[in-house]
Amino acid sequence: MSEYQWGVLGGGQMGYAIIAGAINAGVLEGKNVIVGDPFRTKEKREKWLKLGATCLTKNEEVITQSKYLLLSVKPQMMKEVKDVLANMKSDQTVVSVVAGCSIEKLNETCGHAKVVRVMLNQACLIGHGAAVLCPDKDVPKCDFEMIEEMFKATNGTVDIVLERSMDAFTALSGSGIAFVYQFLEALSDGGVHAGLSRELSKKVAVQTVLGAAKMCEETGKHPGELKDNVTSPSGTTIAGIRALEKAGFRSAAIEAVIAATERCKELS
């Protein structure tokens, strides 16, 4: 029997966001988590210890003591953990959030373990992430339901998808949240240029994006329709929209998602 319910390989931001989110939601206890990472900074180790997790630098020990293994290393680091993953047993399950790493590749890498691919974004840390799950065919229903429950507790939306959709989701949501941050930063900068203080501009920009997202979610209306509802003839909004269109705003957003999707495929 495994000593720890969850092991984590890769204690960076995404691995921490998932586990911390689950602990904050009350579906996982820190004492049942063991983390493998080089822990090159004291701060990184301490934030895991504050969750109640056990921290190790030897990946082999993490794998042998875990029932479920959260694989959250960077795609480029997979070759460095390949040898230790090869020793996994049939009673273990790997939950991978590694971008571009297919179920086929995971099966080749993770010994006899069962595998589930998951993609999500950073907002899972505060319970407002978006996630998709793709289990391999041999994952027991009871194990998958437990994994699904954990991600439902830390995300605003969780869907089960076919594997062919994973790269697009990674680009749209996993990378897309960074695109939204960039937009927020630019919107706030615009407010500062227009005469608002930095503090007020940031606060208003954040609330504006939150409000727009909530309007889309709660009304069910198309974003274009909601945009039209606040766009008066010869008004300020259409003047701003014209400037965005002139700068290629929508095209830039589309191209960002396409570029991120293509990069996912390159990593696979």
TrEMBL record:
All copies of domain Pyrroline-5-carboxylate reductase dimerisation, residue ranges: 163-267
Catalysed transformations (reactions): L-proline + NADP(+) = (S)-1-pyrroline-5-carboxylate + NADPH + 2 H(+); L-proline + NAD(+) = (S)-1-pyrroline-5-carboxylate + NADH + 2 H(+)
EC number: 1.5.1.2
Classification via SUPFAM superfamilies: 6-phosphogluconate dehydrogenase C-terminal domain-like (SSF48179), NAD(P)-binding Rossmann-fold domains (SSF51735)
Leading EC class: oxidoreductase
GO biological-process terms attached to the record: L-proline biosynthetic process
This protein's pathway: Amino-acid biosynthesis; L-proline biosynthesis; L-proline from L-glutamate 5-semialdehyde: step 1/1
Single GO MF descriptor: pyrroline-5-carboxylate reductase activity
Pfam families (UniProt xref): F420_oxidored, P5CR_dimer
Binding site for NADP(+): L9, G10, G11, G12, Q13, M14
Keywords: Amino-acid biosynthesis, NADP, Oxidoreductase, Proline biosynthesis
Annotated ranges, domain Pyrroline-5-carboxylate reductase catalytic N-terminal: 7-100
Keyword Amino-acid biosynthesis: yes
Domain of life: Eukaryota
Positions annotated to bind NADPH: N59
PANTHER family according to UniProt: PYRROLINE-5-CARBOXYLATE REDUCTASE, PYRROLINE-5-CARBOXYLATE REDUCTASE 3
Family statement: Belongs to the pyrroline-5-carboxylate reductase family.
Function summary: Oxidoreductase that catalyzes the last step in proline biosynthesis, which corresponds to the reduction of pyrroline-5-carboxylate (P5C) to L-proline using NAD(P)H. Proline is synthesized from either glutamate or ornithine; both are converted to P5C, and then to proline via pyrroline-5-carboxylate reductases (PYCRs). PYCR3 is exclusively linked to the biosynthesis of proline from ornithine.
Subunit structure: Homodecamer; composed of 5 homodimers.
Name under which the protein is recorded: Pyrroline-5-carboxylate reductase 3
Native source organism of the sequence: Oikopleura dioica (Tunicate)
Organism phylogeny: Eukaryota, Metazoa, Chordata, Tunicata, Appendicularia
